[in-house]
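Deliverable D2.4 — example input (structure tokens):
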């Protein structure tokens, strides 16, 4: 996965070095922790998160169960793996469905984060994995062509698209779409909302109004993994203003800085639920912290 390539390479080099030692001294561990800290900082992981992570890993590595072992290197690798998974959220979380359909999912995020793409990808995922009948609502009336884009990609994944063009009020569209979804007996309604280039009061205010109109069961924040710590700051601002239940981490196939994926859970307390890994509509999967950690460490 693109965003983790550089980090992966460095962590693997460090751990392979550690694994090569028959016995480990305190200095060996200290050196390894220094390298891990640097690798994480270069991946643009939040400074405090890095500090906590390396402290935890170091303390566990210095424990008697590691230093006294015949194969301490192996143990260190295991600890880093476990802590990396814990950092990304530990157990994999899923979205919950309403006992009284339609389940309403609200998609939020900045413009360009990959929100409209993720809306269609999630619709496809729910159809394939849960056999759900899915409708999507086009409430991003500001970005030029966002409605047309959703009509196109929604159609490609076989979702019903509810849209009223770009002149209608997004809160009204959302309310109307929910009525339609009920009439049409849909299992799930995914509401695509407007993004802005930056977090601002107008954006948050509109989201709060749409939230009140459709009472979503789940609010997902789409976050661009390629924007590093900026992405985490954006998530913090959304958490404060509208709150959300989980993150869709998009563009994990990108070429830099996996830091957002590694710090967003620790900083906001919200788990990453889905990973988007390319422009194609099937490049989307449930996010499993343990599998991701294993992928990073090779
Ligand atoms: P929105 O403004 O948040 O609705 O963003 P879009 O869904 O239109 O996505 C913005 C751009 O990012 C588009 O060119 C998408 O094709 C692209 N994109 C979205 N998700 C991914 C992803 O996971 N990987 C890559 N490489 N590109 C993506």
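Example output (designed residues):
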């Amino acid at each position: 996965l693109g965003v983790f390539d550089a980090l992966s390479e460095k962590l693997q080099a460090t751990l392979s070095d550690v694994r090569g030692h028959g016995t480990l001294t305190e200095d060996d561990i200290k050196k390894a922790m220094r390298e891990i800290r640097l690798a994480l900082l270069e991946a643009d992981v939040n400074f405090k998160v890095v500090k906590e992570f390396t402290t935890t890993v170091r303390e566990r590595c210095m424990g008697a169960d590691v230093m006294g072992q015949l194969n301490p290197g192996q143990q260190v690798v295991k600890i880093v793996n476990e802590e990396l998974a814990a950092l990304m959220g530990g157990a994999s979380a899923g979205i919950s469905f309403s006992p009284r359909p339609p389940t309403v999912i609200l998609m939020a995020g900045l413009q360009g984060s990959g929100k409209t793409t993720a809306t269609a990808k999630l619709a496809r995922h729910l159809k394939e994995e849960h056999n759900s009948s899915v409708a999507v609502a086009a409430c991003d009336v500001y970005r030029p062509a966002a409605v047309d884009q959703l009509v196109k990609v929604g159609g490609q994944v076989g979702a019903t698209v509810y849209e009223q063009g770009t002149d209608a009020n997004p809160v009204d569209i959302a309310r109307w779409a929910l009525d339609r979804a009920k009439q049409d007996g849909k299992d799930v309604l995914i509401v695509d909302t407007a993004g802005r280039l930056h977090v601002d009061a107008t954006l948050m205010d509109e989201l709060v109004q749409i939230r009140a109109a459709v009472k979503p069961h789940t609010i997902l924040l789409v976050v661009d993994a390629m924007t590093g710590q900026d992405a985490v700051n954006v998530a913090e601002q959304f958490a404060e203003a509208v709150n959300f239940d989980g993150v869709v981490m998009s563009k994990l196939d990108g070429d830099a800085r996996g830091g957002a994926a590694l710090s967003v859970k620790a900083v906001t307390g919200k788990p990453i639920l889905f990973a988007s890994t390319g422009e194609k509509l099937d490049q989307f999967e449930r996010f499993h912290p343990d599998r991701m950690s294993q992928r990073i460490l090779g």
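Residues 109, 111-117, 143, 195, 250-251, 253, 276-279 surround guanosine-5'-diphosphate (CB under 6 Å).
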